[in-house]
Write a structure and sequence with these properties.
The structure is a single chain. The two termini are about 45 Å apart. The protein has about 400 residues and is mainly beta. It has two helices and 27 strands. The protein is about 10% helix and about 40% strand. The relative contact order is 0.10. The strands form seven sheets. Strands 20, 21, 23, 24, 25, 26 and 27 form a seven-stranded antiparallel sheet that branches. Strands 12, 13, 15, 16 and 17 form a five-stranded antiparallel sheet that branches. A four-stranded antiparallel sheet has the order 6-5-8-9, with no helix packed on it. The protein has three domains: about 140 residues, Immunoglobulins (Immunoglobulin-like); about 120 residues, Immunoglobulin-like (Sandwich), CATH 2.60.40; about 110 residues, Immunoglobulin-like, CATH 2.60.40.10.
Length: about 400
């Protein structure tokens, strides 16, 4: 329990802190204390406080050419103050190809795979409508993405060294135990084994990988080992081998070895394979309402209830398209909640909204139906009139 005295209103407030949330790779707003002020006092605080100081951190994501963006601010605002965090990023030499996202509060964002060995510039802009002189604050960072082929070098060498060590130990053991018996038979029968194996493309599903290979010599066999949280291995003389029991949305390394008895005669370089994402249906009960007393939209939908593997981190993405005459502008909102409020609305502009569920911030599912809403200026008063039109052309006025 905290006791807080407002420097603006000299009011003693009692605030209970919620349990903390730890930032993961998906976008999670950082919780802040909730203060019970009257609406008049709260509005005065929001209008008078300066924007917080923000820290922007950019880092490369191991195992990919994606980049992770983390921002924190001090002091933090109440959510009622509606401070907008607008993140834009682009290739350093092409500022015209810019991607924009809008957030509320501190959080974290991960891009998809970007161009390798390329510098990207990020700008985070804080703004609060209603502050004197439309006060804004911004910060800029630049970082170069990973080079292709260098990211997995340490991990790959680890698997290669492990395979070579196991091969050497098995060879020493086999030579010690049975070389005196095996060598005469090899010379007598001319038992020369083909020491190559042609492995086809590795197939992966939600919970398995499947390995196919070409023709091998009689008596030889193939062993497939999948490295992840736990190593899983299968051995067979017949193609293909299917290794199941894996998790969806996860990276694994697959090692294929050609065997002659217990001896490894050929070991291919480990191959990275990602299991596929489960199917994602469109969120249901997607609706739009106008905000009471101000020019804005409130979007809500039903949370996804299906239980997915822990490696499949679920979030949502709302895409908005605004049209006025021939001018078209697109914007996306990434969030973990099942509702969104937007207030950057203009008169006589048509807005189109749709929502989808997303795994790991990169794999999107099916979109909901597109809803259209228009703010119509009124000649009788200063309040807007809304016209809401669904994708099936049904319409009504609010």
């Amino acid at each position: 329990m905290l006791f807080i005295v407002s420097e603006h209103c000299n009011v003693l407030a009692f605030a209970e802190l919620k349990e903390p949330k730890f930032i993961t790779e998906k976008i999670i707003p950082i919780d802040e204390p909730t203060f019970e002020f009257s609406e008049t006092v709260q509005d005065d605080i929001c209008a008078s406080r300066e924007l917080p100081t923000v820290t922007l951190t950019i880092s490369n994501v191991d195992g990919s050419t994606a980049q992770r963006v983390v921002w924190t601010s001090f002091p933090t605002y109440s959510e009622r103050c509606n401070v907008e965090y607008k993140l834009t990023y682009h290739k350093r030499d092409k500022p015209t190809e810019t991607v924009r996202h809008t957030f509320q509060g501190d959080g974290e964002f991960q891009t998809g795979n970007l161009l390798a060995d390329t510098e990207y510039s990020y700008e985070l802009k804080l703004s609060k409508r209603g502050l004197a002189n439309s006060l804004t604050r911004r910060t800029v960072q630049t970082l170069r993405t990973h080079k292709i082929g260098k990211v997995f070098e340490i991990t790959r060498y680890m698997y290669i060294c492990n395979a070579l060590l196991m091969r050497l130990l098995r060879k020493i053991f086999n030579n010690f135990m049975s070389s005196a018996l095996r060598k005469p038979f090899k010379r007598l029968l001319g038992m020369t084994r083909k020491k190559t194996i042609a492995v086809g493309p590795i197939e992966s599903g939600e919970n398995y990988v499947k390995v196919k290979w070409g023709k091998i010599q009689p008596g030889n066999a193939v062993r497939v080992t999948v490295y992840g949280a736990l190593a899983a291995s299968k051995q067979s003389m017949d193609s293909p081998i299917r290794v199941g029991g894996l998790d969806a949305c996860k990276n694994y390394y697959v090692l294929v070895e050609l065997l002659n008895g217990n001896e490894v005669v050929k070991s291919n370089q480990p191959t990275e394979v990602k299991t596929s994402y489960p199917a994602l249906n469109a969120p249901e009960n997607f609706i739009i309402k106008s905000l009471s007393g101000e020019l804005g939209h409130k979007l809500t939908w039903t949370p996804m209830t299906t239980q997915y593997p822990s490696a499949c981190r679920l979030s949502y993405r709302v895409e908005r398209e605004s049209r006025k005459g021939d001018k078209v502008e697109k914007q996306s909102f990434a969030l973990s909640e099942t509702q969104l409020e937007v207030t950057d609305i203009a008169h006589e502009v048509e807005y189109f909204y749709k929502v989808q569920a997303v795994f790991n911030l990169v794999h999107g599912g099916k979109f909901s139906e597109t809803l259209k809403i228009t703010a119509l200026s009124s000649k009788l008063n200063n309040f807007p009139k809304y016209s809401l039109i669904g994708s099936r052309a049904s319409s009504y006025k609010v």
